[in-house]
Design goal:
4 strands; alpha+beta; two-stranded antiparallel ribbon; about 50% helix; elongated
């Protein structure tokens, strides 16, 4: 039975991670036109790095003795995209340089939409898995009647 709950925990961790990823993507889209942040430069696109959840060493030993599943997923870090800013000619903009160019954020809306679709699909797949686990548990309880 513990493997059953562990499966639910794995899907739940993925839901949390994908939700966080969607929040970061939404932040990127919201800052598409932010030319000045607290550090004085345009907004930099952020990306989420996911990794397998780490488990204690004692659990690794136990895993060697029995068949086990994965550990779930967690957010390893949020990294700033170091690609160059886009230059847009707009001499009337308050952040324009001497030549009239404004450094715009390195956010590509089309890329963000694609990333959002991928995160949403992963989220949706884990919701489906959790619903399947729930149905299995209900059927198991019916058998016990």
């Amino acid at each position: 039975m513990s493997n059953f709950f562990k499966s639910m925990d794995i899907s739940a961790s993925a839901l949390t991670a994908q939700r966080f990823r969607m929040d970061v993507i939404a932040e990127n889209v919201a800052n598409t036109n932010t030319t000045r942040t607290a550090n004085g430069e345009p907004y930099r696109r952020r990306t989420v790095v996911l990794r397998e959840r780490e488990i204690p060493f004692s659990d690794h030993l136990k895993a060697g003795l029995e068949k086990t599943q994965g550990n779930g997923v967690e957010v390893a870090s949020v990294q700033e995209d170091q690609s160059p800013f886009k230059l847009v000619y707009d001499p009337s903009h308050p952040d324009a340089n001497e030549e009239g160019y404004v450094e715009m954020p390195n956010v590509d809306t089309a890329k963000e939409i694609i990333d959002m679709i991928a995160a949403y699909r992963a989220y949706e797949a884990n919701v489906t898995a959790l619903n399947a686990f729930k149905q299995i548990a209900l059927k198991a309880l019916e058998i016990g009647k």
